[in-house]
Design goal:
Helix content is 56%, strand content 0%. It is mainly alpha-helical. Among the domains are: 35 residues; 28 residues, no CATH class. The chain starts with 14 loop residues before the first helix and ends in a 9-residue tail after the last helix.
Length: 102
């Protein structure tokens, strides 16, 4: 049992979220308080690794729109196709020796 001082907080959740919390509590055999303490610790620990939300710089929204239009036109390759091409290029190159330029 922790001897650290504790504070009580009160919060509200939509019914669906509370039902999800209760399902996890039953599965993990935790009380609501224990589950929420774990969730808060994990959230706080990951706060420094989160990608910050920033306003797009000039031209970024236009570039995204151009990319979305290209995708809509079918102008793209899948990740599988890209990896296959890279592997094919790697195999075709064989074991190239690095050149020393003097």
């Amino acid at each position: 049992m922790s001897t650290r001082p504790k504070k009580t907080i009160t919060t509200t959740l939509p019914q669906e979220e509370l039902a999800a919390v209760d399902r996890v509590c039953r599965r993990e055999k935790l009380s609501r308080s224990a589950l929420l303490r774990v969730a808060v610790r994990q959230y706080v620990a990951g706060a420094t690794r989160r990608i910050p939300v920033v306003e797009p710089q000039s031209g970024e929204l236009e570039a995204i729109a151009r990319g979305q239009a290209a995708i809509a036109r079918g102008e793209y390759v899948t990740l599988e196709e890209l990896l296959d091409d890279l592997e094919r290029d790697h195999r075709a190159g064989g074991a190239k020796k690095s050149q020393t330029i003097s």
